[in-house]
Amino acid sequence: MKMQPQVARVVLYQNLGFLGILILALLDDLIEMRSVISSDHPWAFLITRPTLEILLTLGVWYLVHTSTRRILEHLHYLEQFLRVCAWCRRIHYKDEWLRLEEFMQKEFDTPTTHGICPECFQQQKAAIQAARLARQKPSPLPVKQ
Fold first, then answer.
1. Element (H, E) at 83
2. Residue 143: predicted pLDDT
3. In a 3-state reduction of DSSP, which class is residue 91?
4. What are the phi and psi torsion angles at 143 (to 5°)?
5. Where are the domains of the chain?
6. What whole-number distance in Å separates Cα of residue 13 and Cα of residue 67?
7. How high is the mean pLDDT in each 10-residue block of the chain (145 residues)?
8. Where are the alpha helices (DSSP H) in 32-142?
9. Contact indicator for 53, 65 with CB cutoff of 8 Å
10. I want to staple 3 with a disulfide (CB 3.0 to 4.6 A). Which of 8, 127, 128, 133 is the partner?
């Protein structure tokens, strides 16, 4: 199973964060890290083992939270795209395939009308002129055998 890069990054952050917690807890037990950090500082009584663990856990939570939030925002952005049929141009909306006019009426309560864009107008104009020229050409006389 291949994970998407953003999801893999969140999993990596989670694993590294919790691995960091384990390593720091081990270091704290081995070398009494709290005494190295606080030494004889006047505020040393505030830096206790639970305080360090809480701060570390909050740091990991922040990394995981921001990564997850970014991924969810990106997912929400992608879900906003409308799926349009490549052949009939209908729009997929709430498990239905609707014509554009029906979609506009249901979703936005907007009536629609029809027109022609400048590009299509030029194409239609050229097609009409070509049809007129084809009608004006004299048809070839039938050949007698």
1. strand 83-84
2. 64
3. strand
4. -90, 130
5. 5-81, 84-134
6. 8
7. 64 77 70 58 58 74 80 77 85 87 83 86 94 81 64
8. 33-38, 49-79, 100-108, 118-136
9. no
10. 8
Alpha carbon 69 to its chain centroid, in Å, reads: 12
| Nearest alpha-carbon partner for 44 in 30, 61, 32 | 32
The whole-angstrom separation of Cα 85 and Cα 88 is 6
- Residue 119: the pLDDT is 92
Q: Give the relative orientation of helices 5-31 and 49-79 as an angle to the nearest 10 degrees.
A: 180
- Residue 102 has which token pair? 């029906």
- Nearest alpha carbon to residue 82 among 93, 94, 72, 71: 93
Is the separation of the CB atoms in 85 and 96 below 8 Å? no
